[in-house]
Design a protein that fits this description.
Layout: H1 7-19, H2 22-29, H3 33-47, E1 52-55, E2 58-61, H4 63-86, E3 95-102, H5 107-114, E4 124-131, H6 133-141, E5 147-150, E6 163-176, H7 178-183, E7 196-200, H8 205-216, E8 222-227, H9 230-237, E9 244-247, H10 251-258, E10 261-277, H11 285-297
Parallel strand pairs: 3-4, 3-5, 7-8
Antiparallel strand pairs: 1-2, 5-10, 6-9, 6-10
Helix pairs in contact: 1-2, 1-3, 1-4
Length: about 300
């Protein structure tokens, strides 16, 4: 492989990737399309990999193309900032952190996890993307994300080597509006038998923990709704439609925001939280502060 990288070629690739079209990039750069195609081909030859796949008139990045684009984006973004600094402007941020958040993760837990990033002496721009676990892990593998926050450790869903960083765990409580909680029988776990519940969907770790507790105490809940999105679940719970589970580490915030009351803190069930990265030894300053500080905040 050629050890010298032609940054003109890299810049042309970056322009093409943003527009998903050689012709559109050629027009912007005021270059002939065949010239730009030739420059792209030279870059691919020097890197010894294909960067694009063609779909009709549009191009899509290959896995290697996505990795190259990530570095090119950082290189030319820094170049723009350098020009701004030389002209007397202050750069808008020092670091970028792209975080994937699985749908079912409690948003208040995410808030507690990410907030310490702003204690750094650098300005950080956080970009958060919510989605399905498998999708987010695939994007992590393709270097489109720096970190994935999850309630389950990485196993082997995606063919990539990734590492789990446990960032905390929490007990689980059932909450509901005061009127509903006060209407339950006074004591014993059987008071929850056939009580109305709003629960996470069955593909979530929180639901599995709750179902295990129900079975262990011979409780058959009257499940009136299931939500994968934790915020939506709490919103419906705050309407008084049923009891719902809450991570104990964010109880105070939930009580204040949704004006609900704890019915019981269930014993023997916990919710775990993980940060998943491609690095065993974390080097990104923002990820470092997340993995170190969250362990104190999420217990």
């Amino acid at each position: 492989m050629n050890t010298w990288l032609n940054y003109h070629h890299l810049y042309y690739f970056w322009m093409i990737a943003q527009r998903e079209s050689i012709s559109a990039a050629a027009s912007k750069l005021r270059l002939a399309q065949p010239t730009l195609s030739a420059q792209l081909k030279q870059l691919e030859e020097s890197l010894e990999t294909r960067l694009f796949e063609r779909h009709g008139r549009h191009l899509s990045l290959t896995d290697d193309g996505k990795l190259v684009f990530k570095y090119a984006d950082n290189i030319f973004s820094l170049g723009s900032e350098l020009q701004a600094v030389l002209k007397g402007s202050r750069p808008s941020f020092d670091l970028k952190l792209r975080v994937g958040i699985i749908d079912s993760l409690p948003k208040l837990v995410v808030h507690k996890t990410l907030l310490p990033v702003y204690s750094l002496d650098k300005e950080v721009r956080i970009e958060c993307y919510e989605g399905k676990r498998e999708t987010l892990l695939s994007e992590l593998a393709a270097h489109e994300l720096d970190l994935v926050l999850s309630d389950a450790p990485f196993s082997s869903e995606v063919a990539v080597k990734a590492f789990n960083h446990p960032i905390g765990s929490s007990g689980i409580s059932f909450y509901g509006v005061p009127k509903l909680v006060h209407s339950l029988p006074s004591s014993g776990y059987r008071r929850f038998h056939q009580a109305p519940f709003i629960l996470p969907t069955r593909n979530t770790m929180l639901r599995r923990a709750v179902d295990t507790w129900f079975e262990a105490h011979s409780v058959e809940p009257n499940v009136i709704a299931e939500f994968e999105d934790s915020a939506l679940l709490k919103t419906f719970g705050a309407e008084g439609l049923g009891l719902f589970p809450v991570a104990s580490v964010v109880e105070k915030e939930v009580e204040k925001h949704y004006r609900v009351k704890r019915a019981v803190r269930i014993k023997g069930a916990r919710e775990e939280f993980f940060a998943i990265s491609l690095e065993r030894k974390v080097t990104h300053p923002a990820i470092k502060v997340i993995t170190s500080t969250a362990k104190k905040n999420l217990h």
